[in-house]
Amino acid sequence: MEFLFQIAILIMSVVIHEVSHGYAASYLGDETARYQGRLTLNPLKHLDPVGSFLIPFLSYSFGGFIIGWAKPVPYNPYNLRPGRFSEAIVAGAGPFSNIVVALIFGLFLRTGPTNLALIEVTSALVFINILLALFNLIPVPPLDGSKILFALFPERFVELRGLFERYGLILLLFFIFFLWQFLFPLVVLFFRLITGVSL
């Protein structure tokens, strides 16, 4: 039951994350996501068999935590304005949305709700959204952090970007299963700062 409960929160959170990418791209001039029907909170439009189900199951089973992703919202970087940092803005919109969700529900926790079930739900929402934000800011393709990093690269390093993207999934799986221990303390720290309580 705990796993299913966390999966539901994760799905809701990654949908918000992906829709935020789409709206950022739309604001900057690209309507690809809108034309493909991805500017919706309907989870069926966003779920990915690997990222939304398999990876969460494996991470929960072997690591005791839950992480995953949805199908990336499509956009055409050549339609974006104002220039080279537009792609980074679109990429950053996803983690930013998760931070906003974490702050809103973290503020609610600080008001001191007394219902234990409500506290558990809210705590899980805050924790998973902090986790999603920090996880997606890791500069490894296909995560958002890589696009933010690549926006800072001079154009002459475009081949290096291609190399990173070619082996990105392998690097990502390596991070999930071997370097998670370095990210988890940061998630706990931000959870405590936002909510004022310890896990």
Please, could you describe this protein's structure?
The protein is an all-alpha fold and 199 residues long. The protein has one domain. The protein has helices at residues 2-27, 32-35, 49-63, 86-110, 116-136, 144-152, 158-166, 168-195. The longest helix is centred in the C-terminal third of the chain and has 28 residues, at 168-195. The chain is globular, with a radius of gyration of 17 Å. The mean pLDDT is 87.
Approximate strand percentage: under 5%
Give the biggest beta sheet: none
Radius of gyration: 17 Å
Give the uncertain stretches in residue-range form. Answer: none
**Cα shape:** globular
Count helical runs: 8
Total individual domains? 1
Termini Cα gap: 20 Å
Structural class by sheet pairing and helices? mainly alpha
Structural topology:
Elements: H1 2-27, H2 32-35, H3 49-63, H4 86-110, H5 116-136, H6 144-152, H7 158-166, H8 168-195
Helix pairs in contact: 1-3, 1-4, 1-5, 4-5, 4-6, 5-8
